[in-house]
Write a sequence for this structure.
């Protein structure tokens, strides 16, 4: 029996041996045309990211096999890799901001062909039958969407899904996105999570020319919210606690920056905003933000704090018919719509490309907020450490 964790194995099959697709293997191939992928993942909550080899299933009738070029680093990845969300299966290869090219397709796939540039976001399957799925809201699937990593893959023997810090992935065509050729593929990767997570509530609120959108927090999500809201024609006001972020916010296209700890500035912003996109994941008081909203305004909270938030004052909501809402990524059709919108408006993420061996350092920098605004893994660097370790 192979050890649960293998140092990188050679991509070529050694001796024939049966392993479950999606599981980690020491380096043997599973069958006729399944394949091995070089990857980086965690073997426990304390392991950090280490080189691994994944067995990917051979493409079934509806499957698209993707040679991954780039994968964005999301804050969720850090939480999962460090076991902060509990209930985690190990080993775990994170990554749900995937961009690559199609390498093979299953017999029933007619909408994708080898060579096509494609993307995969946070969802690789859902029940396809419930009201949410039928409405194109797979992220709210009543039977639970299948996440791109760390989830039981119900149509593939409940193998645990493994994500995009990897040289390849196999995904059902229904969950594969087309990446417009005009966009830089490495800067597209973060659109698949950070982009659609902010696009969806902006669209749900029907943001248009003349609306005023407030953005709270200027990280991976916040910087996308600024760009997308601007592209929709809105006036954008960034709320930040840190004066040092003011120039960066203006550079991204914000029309105004309000220091949220400056009471006079917050008073001046009273009743000026139509919609707030709050991207801050740490507990914070929303009541001062509600006061900046106009009648019928809304605040969408996108960050999920691990500790309790200060209580919301219902009076603040009632007196202006304010909606306090949450939102989770976006459905598949909406993600495609977002990519097409970004192509039309030339919107991509601001990124810093990292090599595989820089991933752990990049995680530390993400936690420290030291990135403008998203790290993207260049998966062509995955092979290098594998070859060294084999030597
Ligand atoms: Zn994410
Ligand atoms: Zn469903």
């Amino acid at each position: 029996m192979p050890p649960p964790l293998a140092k990188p194995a050679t991509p070529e099959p050694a001796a024939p041996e049966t392993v479950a697709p999606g599981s980690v293997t020491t380096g043997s191939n599973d069958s006729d045309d399944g394949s091995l992928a070089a990857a980086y993942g965690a073997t426990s909550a304390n392991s950090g990211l280490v080189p691994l080899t994944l067995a990917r299933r051979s493409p079934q009738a509806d499957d698209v096999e993707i040679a991954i070029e780039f994968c964005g680093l999301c804050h969720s990845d850090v939480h999962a890799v460090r076991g902060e969300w509990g209930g985690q299966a190990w080993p775990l290869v994170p990554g749900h901001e995937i961009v690559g090219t199609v390498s093979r397709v299953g017999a029933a796939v007619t909408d994708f062909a080898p060579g096509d540039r494609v993307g995969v976001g946070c969802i690789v399957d859902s029940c396809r039958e419930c009201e949410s799925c039928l409405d194109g809201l797979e992220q709210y699937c009543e039977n639970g969407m299948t996440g791109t990593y760390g989830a039981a893959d119900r149509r593939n023997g409940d193998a645990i899904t493994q994500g995009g810090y990897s040289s390849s992935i196999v995904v059902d065509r229904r969950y594969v996105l087309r990446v417009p050729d005009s966009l830089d593929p490495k800067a597209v990767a973060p659109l698949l999570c950070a982009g659609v997570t902010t696009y969806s509530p902006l669209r749900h609120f029907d943001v248009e020319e003349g609306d005023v959108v407030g953005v709270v927090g200027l990280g991976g999500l916040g910087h996308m919210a600024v760009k997308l809201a601007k592209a929709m024609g809105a006036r954008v006001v960034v709320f930040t606690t840190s004066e040092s972020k003011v120039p960066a916010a203006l550079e991204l296209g914000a029309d105004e920056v309000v220091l949220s700890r400056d009471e006079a500035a917050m008073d001046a912003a009273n009743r000026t905003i139509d919609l707030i996109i709050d991207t801050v994941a740490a507990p914070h008081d929303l009541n001062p933000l509600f006061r900046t909203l106009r009648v019928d305004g809304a605040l969408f909270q996108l960050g999920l704090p691990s500790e309790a938030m200060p209580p919301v004052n219902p009076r603040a909501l009632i007196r202006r018919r304010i909606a306090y809402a949450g939102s989770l990524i976006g459905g598949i059709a909406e993600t495609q719509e977002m990519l097409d919108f970004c192509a039309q408006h030339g919107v991509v993420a601001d990124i810093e490309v990292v090599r595989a061996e820089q991933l752990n350092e990049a995680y530390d920098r993400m936690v420290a907020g030291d990135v403008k605004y998203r790290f993207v893994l260049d998966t062509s660097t995955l092979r290098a450490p594998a070859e060294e370790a084999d030597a």
